[in-house]
Amino acid sequence: MDSKQVVIVGGGVIALCSAYYSLKRGFAVTLIEREAPTGDSCSMGNAGMIVPSHFIPLAAPGMISKGLRWMLNPESPFFVRPRLDFDLMRWGWLFYRHSTKQHVANSSGLLRDLNLESRRLFAELAADQDFGLVQRGLLMLCKTAKGLDEEAAVAHAARAIGLQAEVLDAAATSATDSGVTMDVAGSVYFPQDCHLDPARFMAAMRGKIIQLGGKFENNIDIQTIETRKQQVTAVVGSGRRFVGDQFVIACGSWSTKLLRQVGMKLPLQAGKGYSLSLPNPPEMPQLCSIFAEAKVAITPMGNHLRFGGTMEVGGLDLSINRARVNGIVKSINTYFPKFSGEPFSKVQPWVGLRPVSPDGIPYLGKVAKLPNLTVATGHAMMGLSLAPVSGRLVADLLAGDQPFRPLDALAPGRF
């Protein structure tokens, strides 16, 4: 057996990038996916944004009180399904403990560095494959003066750590993206942000993996991790057994079930999100944007315009909550007045489960008791944005090389 055989469990963008960079480092790679080659993983329907602007972790001051207010509104962007579940209670307690100014201060430099390096890697990848990378920035669109004041404070914090950010009034916002009519008080423009079509990116990465000799095993639901003498020896599922020298668990919200078998109780919750891709919209913006108050992301993708949002914590449930979808649709006309809700009635909502850690920081590192097992999950809304840097860091860990920056804050055993 090749001493460099790597088995990666997962079919999303983190798994694909881990496979690509591992192949580039000379490893033989088998990638095991639960779905068909064209399966609709959590990565496929997201907003496709690359966001150095997202340097504030999800666990931040004010999120608890804001979340409690949103819980009372069935159409709000956030909801936690109440249930007697020890894992959810532990996750909630850890989220509460990390929603502090100190945690934000400790995390902002890390998230900045990861996102900027990932942006650099996206540009590098785009040099020899076309997946529609657009490097025009992002607008945080603010409906109210209060919202603009809050986002201006974020812009100030961004500039303090070396990121580019500009506060714009309504007229300057309109001039920055004249492709769409807006009814806003102003915006914050983050010129370093980018966007792409995630389906095109994933198709391009699959092609590169095959070109480099990587193998895909599809429609395999891995259920068991076999270990012997503090080493993983194989993963088993759907009547198949896959042996290797190193193993990577990168299967998003489903990672916890597997890791529990090897004694790791990873605090992770599935955060359900929705998107609607509107064909031939009445107007087509040239930049990606986010409705600041409504927490809805908007991304132009070819002749479609994608709207995505909500964070619904409720287990591994892919059912569609129409009230949450209605909340997204209702917000659109208030920011983009030329859009009505009627065309969206013909659009089938997409739904995906984001893997959310309680401190808003991904899990990326080796399992202490099983040194040939690497974990890469917990990226929440930044899965696509952080995919290339995560994949390259996985390859560094597999090769035993020094990462470009310390990864202690990402350690899967940190709780």
Spatial gap, N to C terminus = 36 Å
Mean pLDDT, as a whole number?
A: 94
CATH architecture of the largest domain: 2-Layer Sandwich
- Count of distinct structural domains: 2
List segments where confidence is low: pLDDT < 50 over at least 5 consecutive residues.
Answer: none
Identify the overall geometry.
Answer: globular
* DSSP summary: helix tally: 10
Q: Return the string of H and E elements.
A: EHEEHEHHEHEHEEHEEEEEHEEEEHEEEH
Backbone structural class:
alpha/beta
Describe the sheet with the most strands: 9 strands, mixed
Molecular structure report:
By secondary structure, the chain is of the alpha/beta class. It folds into two domains: about 5-45 and about 200-265 and about 360-410, FAD/NAD(P)-binding domain, CATH 3.50.50; about 55-195 and about 270-355, D-Amino Acid Oxidase, subunit A, domain 2 (D-Amino Acid Oxidase, Chain A, domain 2, 2-Layer Sandwich). Helix content is about 30%, strand content about 25%. Strands 4, 5, 6, 7, 14, 15, 16, 17 and 18 form a nine-stranded mixed β-sheet that branches. Strands 9-2-1-13-20-19 form a six-stranded mixed β-sheet. Helix 1 (about 15-25) packs across helix 10. The protein is globular. The mean pLDDT is about 95.
